[in-house]
Every structure is written in C-alpha cells, then in structure tokens.
Amino acid sequence: MREPLLLLTLLSHRLVANDTIKALRSGKGMIEYNPACLEGLSDPELEEKIKIETVRLLLRHPYRRPPQNDPAFSLIASNITLNEFYAFKELPYRASDYWEDPGFRKQNFEFYYRELKGLGSDSDSGEDAEEAALWDDDDYMDQKMKGMVSQAALNKTWGSLPGELVETLVASLRPAVDYRKILRGFRAMVLSGEKVLTRTKQSRRYGLLYLGRKNQFTTRLLIGVDVSGSISGAELDLFYSAMNRFFYYGVNTLELLQFDTLIQGEPVLMRKARKAIEVTGRGGTSFQPLFNYFSENHKNYDGLIVFTDGFAPIPQLAPAIARKTLWICNSKANYERHCGWMGKLGRCCWIE
C-alpha cells in the first residue's frame, strides 16, 4: 500500500477473517476478508482489492446509509462513485452502464443511489446486498474518517491519489447544509400580516364591549421552477413536498411560475401546480426573465423561491430583491458548484 492515507485507513479498522463472504467488505469499524479468496490473488490484484475498500471508507459510504436503504443499490451506487473518481480495473458498475447522459458523470454516492432507485427496477442481487451488509449510520466512524481526511489535507499526505478524488474528499468535509433550517429562516423573514377585528376574541382594553383583534397572515410567495428538462419528476415531487410542509403555516398564497429561457405561462396556485407543470426539455435556462417578472410585481409578493440545477447565466438583480430570494438546487453536487454566486444573491440550499 503506497498511499499513506489509504494505509492509515486500513490500520484504523480491525481486520476480521470471514470465510462466508466473497473477498472483502467493510463497515462497523471492520474490514472483513475471506482468506481462501485472497490467497489466489497476485500482489497487484490484492492491492487493488484493499484500495477499493479503503477509498470506500474514506468516502464514508459504509457509514452514511440512505433513507429506506436498499443494500444492493447502496453497493452499486458506491461502486459507480469509486469508478468515477479512481480508475479501478476490476470493480463492477460504472455510470455509463446505466446512463448515456454525460451529466451523470462525476456525481456523488447519494445522487447515484437516488437515480438507481428512480430507474424503477428492483435490486435482485443478493451478492451485492451481502457486500453492504455491514453498512449503517455510524457517527463515530463517520467523524473518524473525516478526521483522517482533515489531517491529510493539513499535512498534504495524499500520496498518488488522483486530484479529482482529493477534491471530492476535501469537499466532503464541508458542514452539511440543513435545508430545513434554511427554509424556516426564510419563512420567518418573509412572513407578513395584518391585524383584523374578530368577534371570537375580546378586546384586552374594553372587554366584551368591543371586538378583539387577531393577526392574520398575508404572506404571498412566488416559486420559480426551472422546466428546461434538467430536473426530474421525482425531484419535483420532493420539492413540492418540502414546500407544502414548511410553508403550510403562515403563508397565505404560494404561486408557481415555470421558466426556461422565457417565462412559461402565468403563475398558478401551488395546489394546482403538480398537474399544470410541464417539463419542456429544451435544455436552455435563463434566470433573468424570472427576476424581471418578480421585480415588476414585487409589491404582490413577499419573497421568491427558485428551484433549479443552477446552470444558467448569473442574473442581474437589485440588493432588495436578493434579500427576498431563496435558491434551492436539485442536488448537493449542483449546490456545491453554484453556492458561491447564489449566496451573494440570496440564501441557498439543496434538496435531495
């Protein structure tokens, strides 16, 4: 093992013999191996097997279980991710085996897992599921792997690891953005209301002789959805679910406006939007028409939410408009690409 970081990763886990598995698997602070299977391997073949598991551990795949976890899909998604960032010779499953679109290259583990689940086929490989049998959420080991990557970044002890893999490992150290916290903060900022008279509440000063007052929310939000074809139906469903959940209380009206290079149609109420939405698939996107519309009608709305993959020219907007804007990317990878400029033009997060 020539890479110092991979050697340290290997030494940080207990080696446990298990003659019931195929060759190697990792998780729960262990690397299990089948002695009989490894005996017949040449030194380069054995080194690659160990390298696969140590890179997998550094990326923390065995310690970050996706929701409603399917072990076989988890293993396939992990292998695809490893093959995208390291040229393994014998590791099965590559992005090109499932998708021709180059947009599926160089994505993260969670992205591939979600897309595999979205293909609609059942995972029927018991062998793949067995290789991921030790995988589970483990905060201790997750933080331990992060610590090793942090030390490697500090001391520049990457060895001969490819540059793209190093960038991916360093990017994984960034604090996770809790989109729930971002949405709550945005909601609190844009809430508006007015006091109205009511017979159901007595006046504090004059008692039952006079009508009481209550606060009535009047908040109206405009939601711009990129329909250029870069966002899938499953991502739209997840977005709608989050909007309905976090903006149910305190928001009087949610209006949705579709856009690609131009505004598509008129705003529609959120509850009718799922049936009215039409992904055009033209490929082009421009944010400027959306922000022009919002600027012209800003008196009618308290805030703007933009759901997009972020691939479009950066729009020009006034600081007052930026303060009312929330950008939501359709994946963590796209968020990391665009958060630099989005953060200067409002708040930003991702949902996946």
Characterise the protein shown here:
The chain starts with a helix and ends with a strand. The protein is an alpha/beta fold and 352 residues long. It has 14 helices and 11 strands. α1 (4-11) crosses α3 and α4 (71-85) packs across α5 (109-118). A 6-stranded mixed beta sheet has the order 8-7-6-9-10-11. A 3-stranded mixed beta sheet has the order 1-3-2. The chain has a two-stranded antiparallel ribbon with strand order 4-5. Helices cover 41% and strands 21% of the residues.
How many alpha or pi helices?
14
- The share of residues in extended strands comes to 15-25%
> What is the top-level CATH class of the largest domain?
Alpha Beta
CATH architecture of the largest domain: 3-Layer(aba) Sandwich
- Sheet/helix structural class: alpha/beta
End-to-end gap: 36 Å
Q: In total, how many domains does the architecture comprise?
A: 2
In CATH terms, what is the fold-level topology of the largest domain? Rossmann fold
Strand order of the largest sheet: 8-7-6-9-10-11
What gyration radius follows from the Cα positions, in whole Å?
Answer: 25 Å
Topology order in helix (H) and strand (E) letters: HEEEHHHHHHHHEEEHEEHHEHEHE
Q: Give the number of DSSP strands.
A: 11
Average pLDDT, rounded to a whole number, is: 82
